[in-house]
Each structure stands twice: as C-alpha cells, then as structure tokens.
Amino acid sequence: MSDTTTLYQHGTLALLVPGLLDGTLTMQELLAHGDTGIGTGEGLDGELIILNGTPYQIDSQGHVNLVSADFTLPFANSHFADYGALMTVENATRADLQQQIMAETHSANTFFSLKITGTFTQMRTRAVQKSGRPYQSLAKTAEKQSVFSRDTVTGTLLSYYSPQLFDGAAVGGFHSHFLSQDHDFGGHILDFATVDGEVSWQQFDSLEQHLPTQNQAYMTHDFAQDDILGAIHQAEN
C-alpha cells in the first residue's frame, strides 16, 4: 500500500537560484514516489504537472507534451494522491480562496496539497525556455519565460503548500501549476481572477527531502553568497 502521508521532494528551490539546473532525477524515479506532482526539467525546461500517474510538460511554446521516463529534473515534488473534499467555491478570487483554505484546514505549519477542478477566469500561466550549460542564475534564466492567458478555462489546479519555516527549501505558501481539461493549456500559475469549482486537499505529516549528492556542482557550491529568498520570491510569484 502506498504511503499517502509523505511528500517527496527532489532538490530544493534554493539550488535553482545560482543556476544549478542539471537534471539529477529521472521521471521514472520521481514516479516511484508518487502519482501526482509538479516540477521542472533540466535547464528549467518548461513546467511539469503529474495527474493520475501521467506526467505532462507545458513547454515555452505553450505545448502540452507527455514526458518520457528518462526526462530529468533538478527540482520536483510528488506524492500518492488521497485527496478529501474540502469545499465548493463560486466566483472566489485567488486571495479569498487562499484565505478560506487556511481557515478551513488550520494547517499553516505543515505541508499539504490542493487539487481544484473547475472553471477559472483570467488565468495567467508561464513556462520557461530551456537553457543549456553554462547555466545562468534563476533570475536570468526566468527572464526567458513565456506567459500564456485564457479568459475562461476549465481544468485542474495542483498546488503544494509549504510552511514559512521551510521557505528556501520550497517556496513558503502555495506553489501551483495548472492543466486544462482539454490538455491544450497550462503551466506555472501567475494569477487568476476567479474560480468556480471543487476544492480537495491532502495533508502530509512527513517530508522526504532528497538531495542530488552525485552532482558535483551542487556538492561544491557555497550558498552563502546567494540571495536565496529574494530570488525565489521574484521568480515564483
């Protein structure tokens, strides 16, 4: 039986800041730790979302691609889905939605995942263009992002909430990706205006943090010189 109370994380958001963008885990390895997740590919190659065991990549052209088993990632989250119904929302703004979720779950100090299926208005997403070695910093690489928008779109929002205590290893607060029902639109969510839909959630009591100890660039980097939180908040929000 799969463990549904553990969130698996490969890499940290902090390692992306100085440009440690080597793919250090395969999709096949990631899927051994969950059937649901988000991440990015080597060189920040697009935005990934895994739903029902199927991994999708939204690339910088806006295409939604199925991901091969040997696709590599510098950073990803995954878990085995066991969501429970939380609430139904109508015409909820993003800010109101997040406030309601925190009030209902009382879970600001632990990790949890959200899955929202419904119809969103003024949805804006992004995906970054893949870069090659020598890699630039997260801030520089993220400048080569494409932004996509839909006035109205139906689909699935998948989000991981991390406590502020873990800001840097992850991004404190919500980190959300999207895939449309028709599999023709998605990416890292920048913003949306409103949502009508069903909100489900899954809480974790354990974080399994996996580090790329076989990657020399990571093992020898001095993070003391990096503005980790500043760069993460600029790139992720």
Question: What is this structure's SSE topology?
Answer:
Blueprint: E1 6-10, H1 13-16, E2 25-26, H2 27-31, E3 36-40, E4 47-51, E5 54-58, E6 64-66, E7 72-73, E8 75-79, E9 84-93, H3 94-105, E10 112-128, H4 138-142, E11 145-162, E12 173-180, E13 186-191, E14 194-203, E15 206-210, H5 216-219, H6 228-236
Parallel strand pairs: 1-15
Antiparallel strand pairs: 1-8, 2-7, 3-4, 3-8, 4-5, 5-6, 9-14, 10-11, 10-13, 10-14, 11-12, 12-13
For the structure shown, list the relevant keywords.
60s Ribosomal Protein L30, Chain: A, 7-stranded mixed β-sheet, about 240 residues, 6-stranded antiparallel β-sheet, alpha+beta
Account of the 3D structure:
The structure is a single chain. This protein is an alpha+beta fold and 237 residues long. The chain has one domain (6-236): Hypothetical protein, similar to alpha- acetolactate decarboxylase, domain 2 (60s Ribosomal Protein L30, Chain: A). The protein is built from six helices and 15 strands. The chain has helices at 13-16, 27-31, 94-105, 138-142, 216-219, 228-236; strands at residues 6-10, 25-26, 36-40, 47-51, 54-58, 64-66, 72-73, 75-79, 84-93, 112-128, 145-162, 173-180, 186-191, 194-203, 206-210. The protein is globular. The termini are far apart.
